[in-house]
Amino acid sequence: MKRYIITSFIAVASTITPHLCMAQVSAQNLIVIDTIYANDTKNVAMFFPEPIRQGITGSDNFIFTYNREKEQYFGLLQAKPGKESNLLIVNRDGSIFSYIVRYKAQLSKFNYFIPKSSSIGNEKPIMNDTISVAIAESKIDNRNYYYQKFSSYLIERKQRFGRNKKRTEGIVLSVENIVFDTEELYFVIEIKNNSTLDYDLNFLKLSIETRQKGKRKSLQRLYQEPIYIHNLPSKIAESETVRFVYVLPKFSLSNDRRAILELNEKDGERSIELKISHRNINNPN
Asked: Which of 11, 91, 123, 170 could form a disulfide with 195 if both were Cys (CB 3.0 to 4.6 A apart)?
């Protein structure tokens, strides 16, 4: 690993006698930032002294994956060609680790065992209400940043999930993938406009539909509010295909329920309702 070393010096002047003065210079605050190399054909494993709670890269061409559902001690790094970036890791005990990450076509090292001494610090404790609010806001910003990064990764990944597709008058609505991560479900949605007219989006809603049994069968829908929406367009031009992500709190469905994805055209009649089986919701990627 290549090392970047930043050393700060503090000059301390002290008077020994009225006729003698010495300047003492000492090196303090030694900070070592290691460089991790990765590529897109091999997995580079990083093993930490405590389970990983959070891992964030600074650029889309670097992906750090780890078990977000059950905390584990290792994560995997992959990279695509591009500029160098950084990787920030937070362990379960609050220890913080920071690295420079670079793409390298040929790798000589595939496993990194990170000692506790490599930590650059620890999360600050909450001291008062002001700091508590600031930390809460910071967590929200970090969570939205994570939603953005993971949604971009899912769109680029182009993983397919079953056959959830509906079309009308040249407009094709499909759910390409459903992914569970931490406490959220990520719905990767695609809209194709194969018509000769632009499609102005009025709304796209995801609801839970309950089918009531008995002599008088009825349907009841409950709208599900997304906690994050990534790259939702307002217009789909003719012959254009768009992909975006809806992030919702994790939920499951009984066999008498299903999800309904409703696409509505502004000032038009090309609206679509796509039914998603409870099996797809309960068994995401």
From this structure: 170
